[in-house]
Amino acid sequence: MKIVGLFDHGGVRRRQNRVAADRRIAGPYRVDLLMEHGIDLIPVPPAKHPWHCKARDVIEHRTGTRVDLAVRSAPRILGAEGVLALLEDKAVLPGKLRRLGIPPYHRVPLTTVSCWWAEELRHGSPERVRAIRTALRGIDDVICFSRNQRSIFAAAGMPEDRIHPVRFGVDPDYYCPGEGTRDFDVVAMGIDRGRDYETLLDAARRLPDTRFDIFTQPGRVLDPPPNVTIHGPVSMEQHRDNLRSARLVVVPTHALAYPTGQSVLLEAMACGASVAATATAAMEEYLQDGRSNLALPAGDPVGVAKVIERALGDEAQRRRIGRAARHRVLDSFTFQQLWAAVADILREAAVRPRF
User: Fold this and answer.
1) What is the pLDDT of residues 187-198, one digit of tens each?
2) How many whole angstroms separate alpha carbon 156 and alpha carbon 208?
3) What is the 3-state secondary structure (H, E, C) of 35-48?
4) Structure pTM?
5) What is the largest CA-CA distance in the chain?
């Protein structure tokens, strides 16, 4: 089954080129693993020539729409059975062309993986909400990473049977337990807007004898107390070492509609670390408080401090949670499982009657 992939990448190679898996270039969220589940993924090579990149950037900046990938993928649509856009911005122009009945996008189903649209539908400007609702009318299926988003997309006009929550995943071969020592007391990391470092700093002020290390972009965290050290971003390998070296990993987040922070949560769990994350509706299927991870109360520094203090005071519980965390990732949250589920959705969309 041939699926055209619209996503930013460094050159995902197709199975038909007979490139060994260990030489394949990974796509975002390991979308290349679709090729292990019966999908011939046909990506669009990235723009390389300086003049091409310049023209693309000018056009897309002025229009506010991702144009280049959609236009250059058109010849590939003719022999395909579907289109997968990763993420939402790549689906806007193809969806518009589908609504208008313009070839070749009118002939194949369009599926998008959505990260941010549910949150924007809840809290975006009226103009932004209208734009998303319009875009959804040209999209056949929406894939999201938490069940709570189903009602949000349904309220925006998307048929419920076309909204597909799937569990996010990580690579458990890369993120795996190590032999390092526990050099950190509490570690937090992440740069996205969903991180609630303000609540974590307030919690840290209530635990002056506990050392906190936060890895994020410069300027993201202001006025930390003396027991908090701020670090800049690190390599993937160092990030993994940090997860392995923490007595407790914390993922403090705001209550957004999508599961912000789930990557770090699952990476830490895969490493066998004891990890605590903010309990939100979007994180419900990822959290098992007291079993494979710990739940932090949203926006409550006193409650967060209590969870951290109890966890640091109970090494046996941390070890037990770390072991359970690793097993749960292997059972439910791998990239292989994620893309196997997406492959089923794409196959279903391809055989669905269209009028």
Assistant:
1) 999 999 999 999
2) 46
3) HHCCCEEEECCCCC
4) 0.92
5) 66
